[in-house]
Amino acid sequence: MSNGQSQAADPFLQQQRQQHAKLQAKRQQQMAQRLNEFKAQYVAEYKMHLTSPAQIEALYDTNDGVKPKLRSDRDFINARLLEAGLPLGGGVPDVTPTSPSQMTLFAHSEAATRFVHDLEGTGCYDTVQVLFGNSKNREDGQNDNAIDVTVKLKEKNWYKLYIGGGVNSEDISSLGDGGDASGLGALGVGGALPKLQFETSASLLNITGFADVSTASYSVDQTGASSFKFIHDRPLCSWMPKQNAFYEWLMPRDPNLIDAGEREQQSNAEMNERQVFVSDDAQYSLGGGSHTTLGIHALLDELDYESTRSYKEFSRSIGLRLANHCRGAARGPGVGGTNKPSVSLPESMAGPYLYLDWSIKLRDLLPRRHTEFPFALDCSKEVASQSGTTLKHSLTGGMYLNGCFTDDRFDPTMGYDAHLTCEVAGPPGDVGFCKVKGGASWHWPLELLKMFVFDVPDEVPINDEDPVVIGATIHSSFHAGAIQPLAFNGLCNNGSYRGIPLSDRFYVGGPGQLRGFLPAGIGPRASKGGATAPGGDSLGGDLFYTSTLAASVPFPRYFSSLRQNGGRILGFANAGTCVSTSSLGSGSLLSLASTPALSQIMQSSRIAVGGGVSFGLPMGRFEATYAVPVRFGPRDARKSLQFGFGFSFG
């Protein structure tokens, strides 16, 4: 072979060698990737037997060398570990005979994450860590190959001071006298928009060692209305001695207390009664005896209704609340920052929330005074007749899903939400009634509708650039409420308006309920009103419903900053009414199922259509809408351009 041929072959050989080297490197990379996958799978499925109880230690800065003394109760921390699904001392039983064992490292990591999220949600800890380590030779009879569980806690200071501002929170014992309506808009309890306020508070944290919270706060808003609140919230088990039978029933059973003979005799169903299994945060927030709380709340509050009803109300209340958990609020400013006790508003809590609330409230209704004639009243005769003091004694129970079955609590595009409350008031109070209200909202992405409704095959991909489909969502909601007066043989409702005091009736309107109408803009009205309530004082109804059908899409791509911050463009149609049963020719709710009554309710409905923009912010939801009322009454208070802000939807 000549030198020219040899030189011509060299580049070819070099190219072959380079391709072979690239192929070898690719094969090695693939082998390393598969090996890492096998390792990850082995680690995830690795069986781990955990000892019980867990070791509880203080997490401290090693530089100063000072180890603080923990206030947290060790039995309480171990109970939270068991309720989170961490199988201390023997494992959590399978839920079904076919379900895989929950003894793997992956399952332990999920349970530990739930535990950390839960304990940090109480607002009593700066840092929570869960560590798994090899156990030394044990003398307590447990498996020598078992793994120790160590919980390291960095507790917050036992006191906390707060000075700042935010959005005015509503009366913790009112429990939502108004009805939120849309599943899309801001919540306005009683039809009132939230107000800015200045607030100062002092809190005591984890004094008993059970993640308890005690808070005293004072606030005043821009109208001068002030309020003072006291809250003490703690798990129910902390109110009783540990040797008490009810305490043992509430708390998860320590597996070490179950001997070997008893273990063999227990069926899977019976073992499930002793230990707690949870599969996700939604189920976890409902279960566990250490999550059952009993809180005390007291309130001195001034409520300003002069803009819609020409009166102010001064209330003093005290009550108790039994709730299912105390993980704290999901988000939001106010007392305790991002973590509020479980006697806060039910709709502000994180996760599904069940509660039973007893309260007694003393209320003073003060009609608006005339600005030029101090001895004259500037209100309707209906409001003037209700002036004075009333005592309300009530028991309320309710359930709030709080958006745990949606993809985003404040900007939902998929899933459903719901709430239901029932309040009964009676002796020894002056007020007697039974009030029920609730509602639900649904959110369907257009991609799913296109796939299931229009039968698009699964293998046909949806174009990510399709501006009509991607991100578009259909929303719907329906909310309703009714009140039935209860006289209790003449002991209650003496002198009240149509059997129900004005403060307990339903008021509908505003961006969070019925867009296109002002707060308390529809419903029964007096023939006249004060200077700040043109068109007549709103007298409220004892029956209401609101319904919304809407569609929303993200902002176009060239509005990248708005799109990334959850901005959406929406169009909607909403309808609703607020009436008195006496106007329907009946004083009983049982007769409302008749065709004539239903026909009158539908004929009294108000309708508005419009559009706007919304933003799902970290602390809530903001929306700006423009609505055009297409069906309204001659005395309805209407407003097309509205701004709303709220914390809960449905």
TrEMBL record:
It is found in: Mitochondrion outer membrane. One of its GO terms (cellular component) is mitochondrial outer membrane. Keywords: Membrane, Transmembrane, Transmembrane beta strand. Residues 382-649 form the Bacterial surface antigen (D15) domain. Its main location: mitochondrion. InterPro entries: Bac_surfAg_D15, D15-like. It is a multi-pass membrane protein. It comes from the Eukaryota. PANTHER family: SORTING AND ASSEMBLY MACHINERY COMPONENT 50 HOMOLOG, SORTING AND ASSEMBLY MACHINERY SAMM50 PROTEIN FAMILY MEMBER. Belongs to the SAM50/omp85 family. This is Bacterial surface antigen (D15) domain-containing protein. It comes from Cyclotella atomus.
